[in-house]
Amino acid sequence: MRWKTAALLTLAVLAAGCSSNDKKEPEPAELVKFDAEIQLKEEWSRSIGDGQGETYNLLTPVVYGNEIFAADIDGLVMAMDRTTGKVNWKKKLDVPVSGAVGAGYGLILVGTLRGEVLALDVSTGEERWRSQVSSEVLAAPAVNGDVVVVQTQDDRVIALEIDTGAQRWSYESSPAVLTLRGTGSPLLTNELAIAGLSSGKVVALDTRRGLPIWEQRVAIPQGRSELERVVDIDGGLLLSSGTLYVASFQGRAAALDLESGRILWQRDASTATGVAMGYGSVYVSQADGSVVGIDERSNTVLWTNDSLLRRELSAPAVFSSYVAVGDKEGYLHFLSQVDGRFVARTRVERAGVRARPVVEGDWLYAYGNDGKLVALTIRPAD
Fold first, then answer.
1. Partner of 228 at 20 to 30 A CA spacing, among 84, 144, 186, 272?
2. pLDDT at residue 255 is higher than 70
3. The whole model's pTM is what?
């Protein structure tokens, strides 16, 4: 599990007081055998430096135009043709990267462990500007043509001018006492910047001035200890046809009305990785390793696959008729959207896959923790 610094200190104190007779943590569930229903083809693979590094990072690549952009923890940023893997440019930054990669309007955007946001030219990788913000940027910046918006580790949402990086506004909230290490990427429309907070709330802000338009609590902290009361919304948000889908750790999955923040439905869930959508369903990789399909119009669970317990799954991604999730041993699992059954499995690398798979059309890109980026397609039936 990924905890911010305060949490690490707290857990260290607790561990020091534990008995040496404590039970060993349960092993990940063994992989079940099944008959593959689809064949995957590796189109190309490439090494992206040191990948996610030793700390818990989610340096998810991004597809922009005909290119895919990826970064490693040490500040290497690469632009590649997304169908051939050919490197178009690479740039070694002078700072470690922690939040990657955002793209749009001619910019590639990354955040750093030093609390900076860097904007690079999409064609050359040359630095356009950099801006200092309040603390670590642990998720990709978002851009809408007017502003670049980032969420920082201290639960601030900050808007920067797209041309210069100058700060336009900053929204502050009180972070929870104990939180997971990470944030989701803000979701931007032309008028709203929407962010999930460590308090279990979602806030929608006016992109021009940063004024709150609405705020909605998705998860209510429960339990006696601070650990039991962690309800971070870290996995990012998903918007579809005016409905916002969100899920929290030790809290709930919910559908909200975008304009008002009104809760349309909600149900108990626990995830730190976010949700995906397809075939009229919302898919959640839960903290225990189960994958759940929920009807997007209600809170009805359509199916549950609990064969991946304790395998520390990535966020799900919808790929063709399937749901793809990575795990801590580097496997990529493909489940049917209809009933959650396994249809295929492949191994990216042994160090694990914690970043959400990236899907663009008929292509899926998986980025392993040690830096291997793989492009996959589905082989046509014989």
1. 186
2. yes
3. 0.91
